[in-house]
Design goal:
Elements lengths: L8 H14 L9 H21 L3 H8 L7 H8 E6 L12 E8 L2 E8 L5 H6 L7 H16 L4 E7 L6 H5 L2 H14 L4 E10 H5 L6 E5 L3 E3 L3 H8 L6 H8 L3 H6 L5 E3 L10 H17 L6 H20 L1
Parallel strand pairs: 3-4, 4-5, 5-6, 5-7, 6-8
Antiparallel strand pairs: 1-2, 2-3
Helix pairs in contact: 1-2, 3-11, 4-13, 6-8, 10-11
Length: about 325
């Protein structure tokens, strides 16, 4: 069943009428197929107009839509012969981050993804995509493995942020995130990261300090959630829409700021309306990004990646 967002109410009403017509047994005075066609044309037009002018707050809603494809959906569809690898070899397994080895269109790769889950049971299992230190240490282990065997790394970012619990802090959450960023910048193989939903704070950049950072058209990427920012600056989470605008968290803003390298277009109405098309488009974009690094010397690759992120800091100070 389609889940409609608050700003999609007019679209929901039209699609409800279409469903009603499709369930009619027939009326000599009504050409049901024609009526459905007319209403569908209105829906398509309204979707196009609505999604062409989404506010940052509305982009946040779309990025969090429960029907968006998750990391496991991309892995299942794009990665052949995928072999999952578990554990950080220090503490335990963290299912908020999944990873392993497989092939993307014949090319051997290491894949790391943050998985939120798609129902109550799986969301609890994956801790809503909020990784603990062992999750980031697993990511480090997989990146080191990729470096050892000269395999490119693909990361799929989708998290509200790293898990903020007491246990995670006791086990060194900040150090684990910082070390994961360090490993991203240290390895000598290509790293391609894509924000597929939410890219929240250090929890996201821990696996996104990449040679190419891409975002789906309606994904978000920010140092803090709009609700968290509003609670700090306005002392009121109701100001989240103001915070969303101020944070410049949309893919379009971040491309203008040169924080990301490419925006991957979503189907009209968002990735949740056509997951298969979205997954296919992202697969093409990732493969194209990886081809850019064919033949590039490992040392050159690493130095360019480091310079890229250092340059962001210089731009911020100028």
């Amino acid at each position: 069943m389609q889940t409609f967002l608050e700003f999609e109410k007019p679209i929901a009403e039209l699609e409800g009428k279409i469903e009603e017509l499709r369930h009619l047994t027939g009326d000599a005075n009504i050409n049901i197929a024609d009526e459905v066609g007319k209403l569908q044309a209105k829906v398509d037009r309204l979707l196009r107009l609505t999604y062409a002018k989404l506010t940052p707050a509305q982009k946040v809603q779309v990025a969090r839509h429960p029907g968006r494809p998750h990391a496991t959906d991309y892995i299942d569809a794009l990665i052949e012969e995928f072999t999952p690898l578990a554990g950080d070899r220090l503490f335990g397994e963290d299912r908020a981050i999944i990873g392993g080895i497989g092939r993307l269109q014949g090319r051997a790769v290491v894949v790391i993804g943050q998985e939120k889950g798609n129902d109550t049971e799986s969301r609890v299992l994956h801790n809503f995509g909020m990784a603990k230190p062992e999750g980031y240490r697993k990511a480090q282990r997989l990146m080191a493995l990729a470096d050892r065997f000269h395999l490119p790394v693909i990361s799929l970012v989708d998290t509200t942020g790293a898990y903020p619990g007491i246990g995670a802090e006791e086990r060194g959450q900040a150090e684990a995130i910082a070390r994961s960023i360090e490993v991203c910048l240290k390895i000598k193989v290509p790293v391609v990261a894509t924000v597929i939903g939410e890219g929240g704070s250090g929890g996201a950049i821990a696996i996104a300090a990449a040679d190419r950072v891409m975002m789906l058209e309606h994904a978000i990427y920010s140092v803090i959630s709009p609700e968290g920012c509003a609670s700090i600056l306005w002392r009121n989470a109701a100001n989240a829409p103001d915070a969303a605008a101020a944070l410049r968290l949309t893919a379009q803003d971040l491309k203008d700021l040169q924080i990301i390298d490419r925006i991957v277009t979503e189907p009209i109405g968002g990735a949740h309306r056509n997951p298969a098309e979205t997954i296919a488009a992202l697969g093409v974009a990732i493969e194209a990004a990886l081809r850019e690094f064919d033949g590039v010397e490992p040392g050159t690759l690493r130095s360019r990646r480091r310079e890229k992120f250092l340059e962001m800091g210089h731009k911020g100070l100028s």
